[in-house]
Design goal:
two-stranded antiparallel ribbon; binds zinc ion; six-stranded parallel β-sheet; 10 strands; 17% strand; 275 residues; 35% helix; single chain; 9 helices
Length: 275
Amino acid sequence: MSVLSSAHVHTTYCDGKTPAREMAERAYALGFISLGFTSHAPQTFDPGYCIPPEQEGAYKAEISGIKAEYAGRMTVYTGVERDYYSCCSADGYDFYIASVHYFLLPGGHHCPIDAAPEKLKSYVDEHCGGDGLEMARRYFTLLRDYVLASRPPIIGHFDLLRKNNAALHLYDENSPAYRDLSLDCLRPLADTGALLEVNTGAIARGYLSTPYPSPVLLKAWKAWGGEVIINSDCHDARFLTTGYDDAEALLSSLGYDHAVRLGKDVLWERYPLGQ
Ligand SMILES: [Zn+2]
Ligand SMILES: [Zn+2]
């Protein structure tokens, strides 16, 4: 394993199970050269899932303290995972991840995409006429437009809806219609310079056997000259590097000879795969 970093970890400030300090201890014990904290950004709904708005200052302060503590040994970054519907500014953070976790419902409510499968199933039935592919179209267009408008450093778990589709079979992941839809939405993002996240979080939590995004998308991204970053989207320090070996092997099999990670001395650095 050559990653030795994760630019996507959660803590008890949001829905993570591990306190920030323990996460840093675990990363350092694993020989990490860098670690980026990215709790879910404050939002005005689903409060159990994100940093409470009144805790955002404490979150930044604690990560800054950890950063100082590990200076010279492991470079720690203060990041945040911003949802399209979060209410958090990127100011004061070293970097952020742009993700979409919700659909907006009439009346200002939100339907989570990667939480309880029955919620996504109801959304498809009630708002997409039972058409899972229509739901996928809405998800990918939302994420595409978010990335094009905000120009983030990292695109989070591009095909997140695979998590619930594995159980619900709302659409056929191998159909030409789905493939073309996801590729068409990914294509313009390659020109933004954003890093496409290879996210192993669903492997650690037992939902999927391969990372987000699918090999078809990763292969196309490579052909378009895009760069990738392997992240564990870790919510529990025991799984900080779960899936990393498989992600590296997958990228190598698709022709990638390097990936990008948070650097020890610079924000982003390339490193060779397979070493
Ligand atoms: Zn996420
Ligand atoms: Zn996350």
